[in-house]
TrEMBL record:
Its EC number is 2.1.1.190. The keyword Repeat does not apply. Keywords: Methyltransferase, S-adenosyl-L-methionine, Transferase. S-adenosyl-L-methionine binds at residues 301, 330, 351, 400. The active site is at 427 (nucleophile), 427. This is 23S rRNA (Uracil(1939)-C(5))-methyltransferase RlmD. It comes from the Bacteria. SUPFAM superfamilies: Nucleic acid-binding proteins (SSF50249), S-adenosyl-L-methionine-dependent methyltransferases (SSF53335).
C-alpha cells in the first residue's frame, strides 16, 4: 500500500540520455533524474514512478507522446519481459553512440585524468546470435504473461525452460526463440523441452527443491562444435538416460554431451563433477590458428568474433617487436597471453583459478607455444616484488581484471614496477577510471578504444593504453 501511495506521475517528460544499467534518462520537473526501462532517448513520455530516492526516481513510460527516431523494432518476441537484451528497441548505431558516451563520461568524471580523443567504438558485425554460451533454467512454475492470466483458458503446461525474470529467483520465463546464440541452440533447447514434457520428466521446483531437470548449458564454437550440459537435480538413471540418448540420436552434431547431478541449494556447477555421456568432455574454439580447449567449467569470452577484435586492439596497443617481456594479468585460460606470444620474447600469465591455469598450460602446449608461463594465485599475493625479481622486469603489462577492477595493492604494485606500457582491458569503465586516476601519478593515457562485445545490452568493453611519463 505504502508503495502505491508514493507513486508519482509526470507528463511530457523528454527522454534525453541512455546508459546507466541499460536504462534511459529523463528529468522530473524538480530536476531530479528519472531512470526509465522502456524508453529511448528522443521519446516524449508520461511517466509513472516505481521507486523514489533522494537523487533520482525510477519509473516506466505509460504513454508515448512522441516516439524517438532512434527506435527500431525489437527482433525478439520475449523483449520487454525477458531481462536479457534491454536495448533491442534502440537502433544499433545509437546503442554504440551511448556506449561510447558512457566510457567517455566515466573516464572524464571518475578518472579525472588527461585524456586523448576516444577512438570510435568497434561495433559487432553480428548484432544478434553472437554468444557462444547460454545457460537456461528449468522450472515447474512458469512466468505467466498478463495475457495468459487475463484469459479464460485453463493453463495446462506450467513448465518453463528459459531465463529468470529479473529480480525473481523462482520465476522462469519460457523461451521459444532466443536471439543470442546460433542454432542448433534453439533447436536443442526446444527439443529438450518438448521431449521432457511428452515423457513426463519433471522440471525443477525451486520452492520445494524437487524435480529432475535443473539447468541447461549450451556452448557453440566458430568451428561448429557444440557442447550440451544438462544439470539434474534428482539422481534418477532411467529418465536421465532416456533424455540423453534422445539428444545423442536426434542431434549428431553434438560434440560433447555432459551432465551433472546437483542436489545442493544453488545450481552452480563449478564445485560439481561433470560426467561425459557421449563424445568428448570438451570442445575447441579457434582464433588466428590457435586452438583453445573449452570444457564445461572453462572461461572463454562469450562473443568469439569480437573477442578477436578486442585481442587485436590489445596486441596493437602493446606495441610488441619480439623483444619484450610481457605480463598478462588476470589471464583466465591464457588466451591473450597465447595470442600475443609470437610477437613477444616471453609472456607471463597470472590468474586466480587453478583450473583456468591448467587449461592455459595445456592450450599453450597444444599450440606449440613455448615462450609463455602461467602462475596461479590471488593477484595481490602473486604479483609482488619478489615475483618480479624472480621472473624479470616486464616491458609491457596487460591487465584484464573482473568488473570490480584491480585491488588497490595491485595498482600500487603496478606503480612500483613501472613498466614502460600498460594495456588495460576492462568490462567496466567506471572501475577502470578509478584505477586510471591512481595510475596517473606515473602514467599518461595515450589511447582509448571501446569495443562492443554485447549488442542489445548496455555493456561495453574498453581498452586503454598507458605510457610511462618521462
Ligand atoms: N583475460 C582473460 C580473462 C579475463 S576475465 C580473457 O580474455 O579471456 C578476468 C579474470 O580474472 C578471470 O579469469 C578471473 O578468474 C580472474 N580473477 C578475478 N579475481 C582475481 C584475483 N584477485 N587474482 C587473480 N585473478 C583474478
Amino acid at each position: 500500500m505504502r508503495r502505491k501511495k508514493s507513486r508519482q506521475t509526470f507528463e511530457h517528460v523528454e527522454v534525453v540520455d541512455a546508459g546507466a544499467k541499460g536504462k534511459s534518462v529523463g528529468k522530473a520537473p524538480d530536476g531530479r533524474v528519472i531512470f526509465l526501462s522502456n524508453a529511448v532517448p528522443g521519446d516524449v513520455v508520461d511517466v509513472m514512478t516505481t521507486k523514489k530516492r533522494k537523487a533520482y526516481f525510477e519509473g516506466v513510460a505509460t504513454n508515448f507522446h512522441q516516439r524517438s527516431a532512434k527506435r527500431t523494432d525489437p527482433q525478439c518476441e520475449h523483449f520487454g519481459v525477458c531481462g536479457g537484451c534491454k536495448w533491442q528497441h534502440m537502433a544499433y548505431e545509437h546503442q554504440l553512440f551511448y556506449k561510447q558516451k558512457e566510457v567517455e563520461n566515466n573516464l572524464q568524471r571518475i578518472g579525472g585524468v588527461e585524456l586523448p580523443e576516444t577512438m570510435s567504438i568497434l561495433g559487432s558485425e553480428k548484432q544478434y546470435f553472437y554468444r557462444n554460451k547460454m545457460e537456461f533454467s528449468f522450472s515447474s512454475s512458469r512466468w505467466l504473461t498478463e495475457q495468459e492470466i487475463n484469459s479464460e483458458e485453463e493453463i495446462v503446461d506450467r513448465n518453463a525452460l528459459g531465463f529468470h525474470i529479473p529480480g525473481m529467483w523462482d520465476k522462469i520465463l519460457d523461451i521459444n526463440k532466443c536471439h543470442l546464440q546460433e542454432d542448433p541452440s534453439n533447436a536443442i533447447r526446444t527439443a529438450i523441452r518438448q521431449f521432457a514434457v511428452e515423457n513426463g520428466l519433471s522440471f525443477f521446483n525451486p520452492r520445494t527443491q524437487e524435480g529432475l531437470l535443473r539447468t541447461l548449458m549450451l556452448r557453440t564454437s566458430s568451428i561448429g562444435e557444440v557442447m550440451v550440459l544438462i544439470q539434474f537435480f534428482e539422481d534418477n538413471k532411467e529418465p536421465r538416460e532416456l533424455l540423453l540418448t534422445f539428444l545423442k540420436e536426434k542431434f549428431p552434431e553434438i560434440t560433447s554431451l555432459l551432465y551433472v547431478i546437483n542436489q545442493k541449494q544453488n545450481d552452480t556447477i563449478y564445485d560439481q563433477d561433470v560426467v561425459c555421456f557421449a563424445g568428448r568432455d570438451h570442445i575447441f574454439e579457434e582464433m588466428e590458428g590457435l586452438k583453445f580447449k573449452i570444457n564445461a567449467k572453462s572461461f572463454y569470452q562469450t562473443n568469439s568474433e569480437q573477442a578477436y577484435e578486442l585481442y587485436k586492439v590489445t596486441r596493437d596497443f602493446a606495441g610488441l617487436t619480439g623483444q619484450e617481456l610481457v605480463y598478462d594479468l588476470y589471464t583466465g585460460t591464457g588466451t591473450i597471453a597465447q595470442f600475443i606470444s609470437k610477437k613477444a620474447r616471453k609472456v607471463i600469465g597470472v590468474e586466480s583459478i587453478p583450473e583456468a591455469i591448467s587449461d592455459a598450460k595445456n592450450n599453450a602446449l597444444g599450440n606449440d607455444i613455448s615462450n609463455v608461463e602461467f602462475y596461479v594465485g590471488d593477484m595481490k599475493n602473486v604479483f609482488t616484488t619478489e615475483f618480479i625479481e624472480q621472473h624479470g622486469q616486464p616491458d609491457v603489462i596487460i591487465t584484464d581484471p573482473p568488473r570490480d577492477g584491480m585491488h588497490k595493492q595491485v595498482v600500487e604494485q603496478l606503480l612500483q614496477v613501472a613498466a614502460q606500457r600498460i594495456v588495460y582491458v576492462s568490462c567496466n569503465s567506471a572501475t577502470q577510471a578509478r584505477d586510471l586516476a591512481l595510475l596517473d601519478e606515473k602514467y599518461q593515457v595515450i589511447q582509448v578504444q571501446p569495443v562492443d562485445m554485447f549488442p542489445q545490452t548496455h555493456h561495453v568493453e574498453n581498452v586503454v593504453l598507458l605510457e610511462k611519463r618521462v
